[in-house]
Amino acid sequence: MIGPVISPEMVEEYDRNGVICVRNVIDMERVERLREAVKRVLSGPTAMDADAAVEEGRPVDPNSGIAKFRQAMNGWQQDEEYRALLIDSAVPRVAAELMRSTSARVLYDQTLVKEPGSPVPVSWHHDQPFWPVSGDQVCSVWVALDEVTPDSAPVHYARGSHLWPERYRPTVPSGQPFDSLMNCDLPTAPDLFQVPDADLVTWDMMPGDVLVFTGKTLHGSGANLRKDRPRRAIAARYVGDDARFIEGMHVLSLAFPEQPALKTGEPLSGDLFPLAWQNEELKVS
């Protein structure tokens, strides 16, 4: 569980760009176990087919033969392998150290599977407007379970966009507004794939590599053009010391069987947001 060393230079890169790729965080033995766990979670109660909107904003017909973009939420509450990843691996330490936080708490996790040939894009967005959380120490760790190449729907990031003053509304993957959630009065994010001088960054990845990015970093992805393999990933979402709860309708309302007993401005705590890592040198006994 030792995992990679997070250097000061890596923290500075994360601070500057809002995203970083960290190699070899998860070994192949665990990757194989997680691939099996993904199958279990995608047959569970929170699994769904993402809004594909391939034509005229319409979801893909499950009987159409079109490859899907499948998601599930809060696998850690359903499967021990997910729980081990989010709480008992190097992942939360990597998140906390890059956030400059003394601790990392689980916000939730999201399974993201683009089947071979899936045409489904993910429109440009940043995550925090979806979530009931304020603060700067909020991040995702996107764990690659397959090789990621330019033709297998890599995630692209707008470098430094976490520092922009603009905030954008929640949308479904196709870019249609998510009208039932908070922050729907915000503008829709631009399609940065269509902006010639946009400063975008992406990485080729191997299974076990991770992307760590802030809750305010704009990102999006295209179709999985590969016909021979899926693009499977688990996004582990964490909050650090400065994160505070925000009341209102949020994406986690769709995943939690019970709602957090928290008020706006309170730190996240309790069984729904378990402590995953804490700096033992700073831990109060």
Automatic annotation (TrEMBL):
One Pfam family matching this protein: PhyH
Keywords of this entry: Dioxygenase, Oxidoreductase
Protein name per Swiss-Prot or TrEMBL: Phytanoyl-CoA dioxygenase family protein
Database matches in InterPro entries: Phytyl_CoA_dOase-like (IPR008775)
GO molecular function, one term: iron ion binding
